[in-house]
């Protein structure tokens, strides 16, 4: 349980807010590349409580500028994409990709007023299906050499989904290894042959045991948390009756991402990105260590559950997340279908728009949540005191030397679980068609 003041400090994201100023010192997912490729490349972006517009100019370069025109505030999302920039339809003021006003066609001939007019603008880069924005001061940091950035684009599929709640509770479900035994429990095992592109459907490495069965039969994991250069490494051990140990290694990448195994073939790296204080997007990069990802299939699977253009899930509070009491009795723990994203969405949205953490009671299995909040508090203090070099991944570390992070499920036959994880990961990397050495 924490105070209301601390809860506000950890959750609020607007300009000048405690957590918001930390988040602004890291690249943030702003849009999927898919969004720019459907129709006209002008996309509204609301990020960290700021309203922006992302567009591609005629030189093929991206600009991320203020959504409201600096003249009288009209919505630039309806702008005319012309003359290598975006022109406001209200009085024709024209802006380039850096937000500079380059023309005011209604002002007197020879006027130089436009030279002093600049919209907000943030640097953006594209990486493996996602457009990233840097909204902080100074030079943006480098990208770490994580698998999701390093794999060729053929091996990474990116998607996103809207959750109507604060970003921190969304992140906290990802660093809570205990919930999978309950929230995502399937009362029967599905055929793992039909597992492509889905989570928790594969069998644990070398065991033939469906992950669903391990999670269901062993609900009390031993969880340990280690601090790393990028954030936290979580190890969840489930000691099986036959003397073997199931090891699940997941990661928190500071400030708001997680990296988790999806199947033996793929991992998911997922950012929980604040739209504003009460809404967030998850952006996932599914990275394959074997074949190229079947992007059409994975997109189709997910578009069946989401509506465009805002990527809002079709199941939500308005239709009780598809809750079915009969299904809950016989098939799933939640009664909300087989898509585990819906389970997580219900879990995080049902906590309220911003979880009231003055009323919570954390247990031993919440250790990673406790450690993460401590890290975020330390980062907030560092930013307030100007000790920027104390922030994770900004300590003067060469980020190109940051690999992985290792995220996998493994079975230790003899109790040496750290070796089992390392062996399973090394085998996967050795067979990988792109350079996945760590
Ligand atoms: S409001 Fe945009 S040009 Fe006037
Ligand atoms: Fe989950």
From TrEMBL:
Keywords: 2Fe-2S, Dioxygenase, Iron, Iron-sulfur, Metal-binding, Oxidoreductase. PROSITE patterns: RIESKE. Residues 27-133 form the Rieske domain. Coiled coil: none annotated. GO terms for molecular function: 2 iron, 2 sulfur cluster binding; dioxygenase activity; metal ion binding. It comes from the Bacteria. PANTHER family: BLR4922 PROTEIN, IRON-SULFUR DOMAIN CONTAINING PROTEIN. This is Aromatic ring-hydroxylating dioxygenase subunit alpha.
